Amino acid sequence: MTIQLLCAFVLAFLFATAFGKSYIPWLVKEKARQEIKTEVKWHESKSGTPTMGGVMFILAAALVCLTLGFPGMLHGHFEHIFVLLFAMVFGAIGLLDDWKKIRKKENSGLSSNEKFLLQLVAALAFLLVMKKMGFLHTSLFLPLSGRTVMMPAWLYYVFAVFVIVGTVNAVNITDGVDGLATGTSIPVFLFFVLVTFAWGKDYLQLAIFASAMVGGLIGFLTFNFNPAKVFMGDTGSLFLGGAIAAMAFAYDMPLILIPLCVMFIIETLSDIIQVSYFKITHGKRVFKMAPFHHHLEMGGWTGRKWKEKEIFVLYTGISLMCMVLSFLMVFDRF
């Protein structure tokens, strides 16, 4: 198992780095450029940076799943393909959003209502397919306690849709600083690799996908680290959110996303708090700018303006600690 997961990591890393060397110049040639929000003035120098770089780690994961995961498929194990396809549906939504941004040459693609509706349909379809295939149970595992509680089916589906759509958008919101969503996501997928070592070979196919994501993201990070040569775009961020949510349900522990994805949750809550407080107080703000990484960039609270590399280290470091904590909460489940 160790050799297979190591090979998945290496193959995905090599593919992402090799593919990126030709893919990024192609994006530049095709003028697939990212437009920067006017309110984030200090990021204006990034305008024109190619986007849709998420295709690099998406294809890397697909390659690994179809090759190293093929022996398992011969024995009827398609869990990794199921997760990959689900994440790709969200990636397709992101691709449509990116394409509209490029076409209009501005930072607005699909409307928020359009994106929400598409994500809602994708989440419901995922749950129905999981239920039909026998992968979905309306019981909820409680990390740390080791207990499992039963839920009414309707309530579980509402909860599941909320988790999926919330996770997808949380990752999307975090993608606002060079390498930030990438660095914050790597420990999340590494967590699922570690859990597989603890739980056994029954989860090998899923771990192949997770290991491929770690390798693909690190390969992508060589181009996405500050100063970024390419952005993942909504193509990449929505794919990542879908993949993380799908993995949590595939391992039958969606609640682990609370301790595991603390930084994504902070980013989302900062946005919700800012908008809500602004409306209630008719113009006052809690943060200098939301989401939280922009607050740090603007020197919120302390007056010290954080550099992008510092924010990357902060978020990635906290995510690594959350990964360890989350693993300790579930490693002895089986």
Question: Care to describe what's here?
Answer:
The protein is mainly alpha-helical and 334 residues long. The protein has one domain (2-256). The chain has 13 helices and 2 strands. It has helices at residues 2-29, 55-67, 70-74, 79-104, 112-132, 153-174, 180-199, 204-224, 233-250, 257-260, 262-280, 292-297, 308-330, and strands at 139-142, 147-150. It has a two-stranded antiparallel ribbon. β1 (139-142) and β2 (147-150) form a beta hairpin. α1 (2-29) runs antiparallel to α2 (55-67), α4 packs antiparallel against α5 and α7 runs parallel beside α9.
Gap from first CA to last CA: 18 Å
| H/E topology pattern | HHHHHEEHHHHHHHH
Detail the poorly predicted runs: none
Strand coverage percent: under 5%
Helix percentage range: 55-70%
* Main sheet: strands, sense, barrel: 2 strands, antiparallel
Instruction: Compute the number of structural domains.
Output: 1
Count of beta strands = 2
Radius of gyration: 19 Å
Keywords:
mainly alpha; 13 helices; 334 residues; two-stranded antiparallel ribbon; single chain
Task: Note the topology.
Blueprint: H1 2-29, H2 55-67, H3 70-74, H4 79-104, H5 112-132, E1 139-142, E2 147-150, H6 153-174, H7 180-199, H8 204-224, H9 233-250, H10 257-260, H11 262-280, H12 292-297, H13 308-330
Antiparallel strand pairs: 1-2
Helix pairs in contact: 1-2, 1-8, 2-4, 2-8, 4-5, 4-8, 4-9, 5-6, 6-9, 6-11, 7-8, 7-9, 7-13
Offer a quick outline of the entry.
This protein is an all-alpha fold. It has helices at residues 2-29, 55-67, 70-74, 79-104, 112-132, 153-174, 180-199, 204-224, 233-250, 257-260, 262-280, 292-297, 308-330; strands spanning 139-142, 147-150.
